[in-house]
Amino acid sequence: MATGIRDKVAIIGMGCTKFGERWDCGPEDLMVEAFQECLSDAGIEKNDLQAAWFGSCLDEVNVGKSALPPSLALRLPNIGVTRVENYCASGTEAFRGAVYAVASGAYDICLAIGAEKLKDIGYAGLPEFSAGMGLTNQQWFPNMTAPGCFAMLASGYSAKYGVDMKELKRAMAHVSAKSHANGALNPKAHLRAPVTEEVILKAPMIAYPLGLFDCCGVSDGSACAIVATPEVARRLGKKDFVTVKALQMSLSNGEEMSFTNWDGSGFVTTAKASAAAYREAGIVNPREEISMMEVHDCFSITELVTMEDLHISARGEATKDIMDGFYDLNGKVPCQVDGGLKCFGHPIGASGLRMIYEMYLQFHGRAGQRQLENPRYGLTHNLGGFPFMNVCSIAIVGRNEA
Q: Comparing C-alpha atoms, which of 284, 240, 280 is closest to residue 12?
C-alpha cells in the first residue's frame, strides 16, 4: 500500500525574485536571480545538484519549449533537466517532479525552478491572449477571457447558496483588500499599496461582478527550491528544516464541461486534491490544523470559493468567514500572507514555487512584518485552466517532525 511522502523530502533552500515589470531582465536573468538566493540559502555547491525540473507555460516567454534554458543560464553541471508544463500549476508541477525524484530514492538533491516573462509579450488576459496559448486555443476559445470565465463562479455561487450579489461583492472586496494589505508588507511583491474595500467596490467593471481590483495583475518573475533527503539536510547542519507533508493533484475529467453534475459554484478538482492531501499529511481537521495558506487567487471570487473547496469554510459560509476576518493576517487561518497573485501578479511558471517560498520563509522566521507566530502546517493551492476545465495541485509543508 502506498504510504505517501510525508517527511521523506526536505526543502533545504529557496529563492525568489522580486515580481513586477522587469523590463531590464530577460527570463534567464530572472532564473539566475532566484537561483543565486536559493543556492546560497541551501549552503551547497552547484555541482551538488543531481537533477532539475523546470516549469514554464507559454511559448513566447523566450525560454523555449525545451529544458535547455535553465541548464544554459544557470550553468548546471551537465545534469538532466526536465521541462514541465501544467497550465497555471506549472510551478508546483516542477516542485512535484523534484520532490518525487528524491522521495523515490533516485536522487539525493534536486532543483525545481519556474520562470515566466509575460510583460514583454503583452499578455493581459484579453481576447488576443489566445495568440500566446497556441493554435488549438485560438480555434476552441477565440473570444474567451479569463475574467469572463471566472466571473461565472460568482453567479453559480450566488444562485446555489442564496447569497445576495451585493453581499458577495463586499466579501470579494474584503478578499482583495486583505491581500493588498499583506502585499504592502512584502518587498518582493509587484503591487505594494494598500487599497480600501470602498475603492475596490467603485473600481471599473471588467466582467460582472469582477471589477479591476478583483483581478490579479500581469508580471515577470522566477522562484526555485532545492530539495533533498532529510539525511542530507542533517548532514548540512540544518536542524529545524522544512519537510514536504503532502503533494496531491487532480485534473478535470470532462464532467464539468458536460455540466452533468457541476453547478458552477466551485472547483471539483480542488475538493478532491485537498482531501487527498490532508489524508497524506495526517490532517484530520484542516480548519483547526492548517496554520496559513497561499491559494490561487487569480480572481477574488476564485479565492472565495476555494475556501470551501479546501474544506476550511463550510459550504455556503465562506462569505461570513471572510467578513469575520478568519483569513486576515491576524485571523485563524491567514491566507495570501505574502499578498498572493493579487499583489505578485501571475508569471505562470513561477507562481506555485513563489507560494511555497512564503511558507518556507514563515517556518524559518524570515517573513518580517508579516511573520506569523509558530506556524505548523502551510498549504499552497495552485490552479491551472478554467472553472470548467482545470488542474489543481496542493502542497502541504511544515517543520520536520520525523
A: 240
- In this structure, the number of other CB atoms found within 10 A of the CB of residue 398 comes to 24
**Of these residues, 174, 190, 296, 346, which one is catalytic?**
346
What's the pLDDT tens digit per position in 366-380? Answer: 999 999 999 999 999
Q: What is the CATH number of the domain that holds 289?
A: 3.40.47.10
Total number of residues shown for the chain: 402
Residue 3 lies in a domain: no
**DSSP track, 112-164:** EEEEEE-GGGT--SSGGGGGGG-HHHHHH-TT--HHHHHHHHHHHHHHHHT--
Q: What is the DSSP letter of 17?
A: P
State the Cα–Cα distance between residues 251 and 286, nearest whole angstrom.
Answer: 22
Distance in angstroms (rounded) separating the CA atoms of residues 225 and 113: 6
* Cα distances (Å, whole numbers) of residue 311 to 172, 286, 318: 19, 7, 10
Q: Verify that 266 and 361 share a domain, yes or no.
A: yes
Who contacts 396 (Cβ-Cβ below 8 Å, separation ≥6)? 244, 245, 246, 247, 277, 278, 280, 281, 283, 377, 378, 379, 380
Q: Catalytic site residue 88?
A: yes
Is 346 catalytic? The answer is yes
**25 within domain boundaries:** yes
Low-confidence ranges of the chain (pLDDT < 70): 1, 59-67, 121-143, 259, 402
Tell me whether residue 2 is in a domain: no
* Interval 102-135: pLDDT, tens: 999 999 999 999 999 888 765 554 444 444 454 4
| CA angle 336–151–223, rounded 5-degree value | 35
> Would you report the helix, strand and coil content of the chain in percent, each value rounded to 5?
40, 20, 40
> What is the reported pTM?
0.94
- The parent domain of residue 332 ranges over 143-213+244-397
Tell me how many domains the chain contains: 2
The one catalytic residue in 16, 88, 110, 392 is: 88
211 within 8 A of 204, measured Cβ to Cβ: yes
**In the block, residue with C-alpha cell 501544467:** 86
Same domain, 109 and 190: no
